[in-house]
Write a structure and sequence with these properties.
Length: about 170
């Protein structure tokens, strides 16, 4: 079993050395804005199933203050005889805490995939996520991982588990 962490601290000891008996090891990524689950497609005696690999969960900010974006009024610089510079909005050009959380989650998931691919853990990748999140995932994937994409579907399957998830993914 390989044990370690990616650069951002994602624990990858849960890989359990899972190797499928099929010709191509296919991993499946099921994501929503709060977690990313990874599975490996396993083929045994003509039966296909999903083996859980790991789950990456977003790090929710617990402080009440972190949910507040800060000043929301316009401000500008005033010189001695009047205004200089254009007025600006305090939130301009910044991501919201929710967006930051999603972007961080996707970045950690992408890093996990990149590290796992370098270790030879999979050869093919299927991704299932809602349309908005899928766009963020595609933008964050490393080129080497992107080349392994086999199936990409705009489906939010994050709320499904067990046999129902297998049925939806393997259909």
């Amino acid at each position: 079993m390989y044990q370690g962490k990616t650069k951002s601290g994602v624990d990858i000891k849960s890989l359990n050395g899972v190797e499928s008996t099929g010709k191509v090891r296919t991993w499946i990524m099921v994501a929503d804005s709060s977690r990313i689950r990874f599975f490996e497609r396993e083929v045994k005696e003509k039966r296909v199933s999903l083996l859980p690999i790991t789950e990456i969960v977003s790090e929710r900010q617990k402080l009440e203050e972190s949910d507040r974006p800060g000043r929301a009024f316009s401000s500008h610089t005033q010189a001695h005889h009047g205004q200089t510079g254009a007025p600006r909005h305090a939130l301009e050009g910044r991501e919201t805490p929710a967006e930051h959380e999603v972007n961080d989650l996707v970045r950690r998931g992408s890093e996990f995939l990149d590290c796992s691919l370098k270790k030879g853990k999979f050869e093919s990748l299927d991704v299932f996520a809602g349309p908005h999140l899928l766009g963020i995932i595609r933008a964050e994937l490393k080129k080497a991982v992107e080349k392994k994409l086999n199936r990409v579907e705009e489906k939010d399957l994050s709320w499904i588990s067990g046999a129902d998830l297998e049925k939806r993914i393997l259909e």
